[in-house]
Write a structure and sequence with these properties.
This protein is mainly β. The chain is built from one helix and eleven strands, in the order αβββββββββββ.
Length: 156
């Protein structure tokens, strides 16, 4: 009877172990302007949001497209109401995330591409434990196409 009670106790103790949810950065995103002209300073915002389980050593990196120059000193990130300067673009920051944590990063670049309608495709990456989340934003260089949707269509 003692052996049976001990075995049941061990089974109950093993049943209490719960699996931890993996991190989830699918709600993370990157924004910027839809259009820009040669010489414009444009700002990108990257929002990293973890809606899953906790994770350590998450790294943000950004591979700027050709056609822009990074403006030194323009990159900052904010977490829990405090702001810091970013590192270089290969490791802008490294942080631990609990569920629900959010880090907002902003940086500025100057447009150097002069070809009209040239797309600037900017890629940013969150990396952790061998996983990666890519965030992409495209800015078109040149004058935006006319918008006739609000034009007055009165006539004879």
């Amino acid at each position: 009877m003692t052996v049976l009670a001990t075995a049941i106790g061990l089974l109950l103790a093993l049943a209490v172990v719960t699996a931890q949810a993996p991190p989830d950065f699918d709600s993370s995103y990157k924004t910027g302007p839809q259009y820009a002209d040669l010489g414009d300073v444009i700002h990108y915002t990257i929002v990293a949001v973890n809606t899953g389980g906790p994770v350590q050593n998450v790294v943000l990196s950004d591979s700027l497209p050709s056609g822009v120059d990074f403006i030194p000193g323009s990159c900052t990130y904010t977490y829990d109401g405090q702001s810091w300067n970013c590192g270089d673009l290969h490791q802008m920051w490294q942080a631990n995330f609990a569920s629900g944590d959010r880090i907002t990063t902003t940086l500025a670049v100057r447009v150097t591409a002069s070809t009209a309608q040239w797309p600037l495709v900017n890629h940013a990456y969150l990396s952790w434990n061998g996983d990666q989340k890519e965030m992409v934003f495209t800015t078109t260089v040149g004058t935006p196409p006319p918008d006739f949707s609000l034009s007055d269509k009165t006539g004879p």
